Here is the input.
Amino acid sequence: MNTTVVTAPRAAPGIARTVIGIFKLRIGVLIMISALAGLAITPGRGLSLWQVLVLALSVLVASAAAGAFNQFVEADSDRQMARTRKRAFASGALKTSPGWLLLIALMLALSVGATAWVINPLAAFFIFLGAFTYGVVYTLWLKRRTWLNIVVGGLSGSFAVLAGAAAVDPTLGPLPWLLALALLLWTPPHFWSLAIACKDDYAAAGVPMLPVVVGVPRAARIVHANAIVLVAVSLLPVLFGAGPVVLVGALAGGGYLLLRTWRLARAPSRATAMAAFFGSMVQLSALLAAVAVDAALR
Here is the structure.
């Protein structure tokens, strides 16, 4: 009886998933959508389909490069956290060889160069700043030094918005600046909610996330206060020419987030923290979708 089992064909998809996982594509897609929202909310000349495609892919690839650099540098600390210890570099599934750094640098250079060539240098500069902020400023300089790490790290999404806006109009009017500010304010309640749920992990890894520094109850109240400011700012574009669809999206998504963060502030727990975390995703999705629909209706 022949009992030979062929396993190689099944291994290939697993390897592909492992490699793809280091690039944090879910975050990358969100940042790419933010760039397209910056493009959509900015009055000005229309871009060709080719230019939009280059912008979207450049933001995605630059974000992927920054995400891979983050996992490369953080491999040791990722091993200390249950949430991250199965990541490719942390688990040893992929070796932290210098070749990865070369690939990361080439990805960033290609993204920035393509944007400068096809669109304009300012949009390219914002793409570079977004990747640099996450990869170097957040990961290397701030993550292990201050609870403000994620506040500054949130500039990555803001720079993506500005990259999209600069592709349309390099003078950057108030609408993209307000959307960029909303992205900056969105990041703390999003990641601090997750940090509350994973407080023990961050404490074990020596990462001074807000709940580790000030405690969970106070961190939960700060998350709710930050969410109030975020929702208020997300309504401001209506005062500068954004349409009623943006108002509806900001109110609907913002109201849902405030409900979740209010419950977190009243009764901090892993369950309410994760609900606030996912509530922030709903809020941002509603806002960005409203921006896109508003642009399509103009």
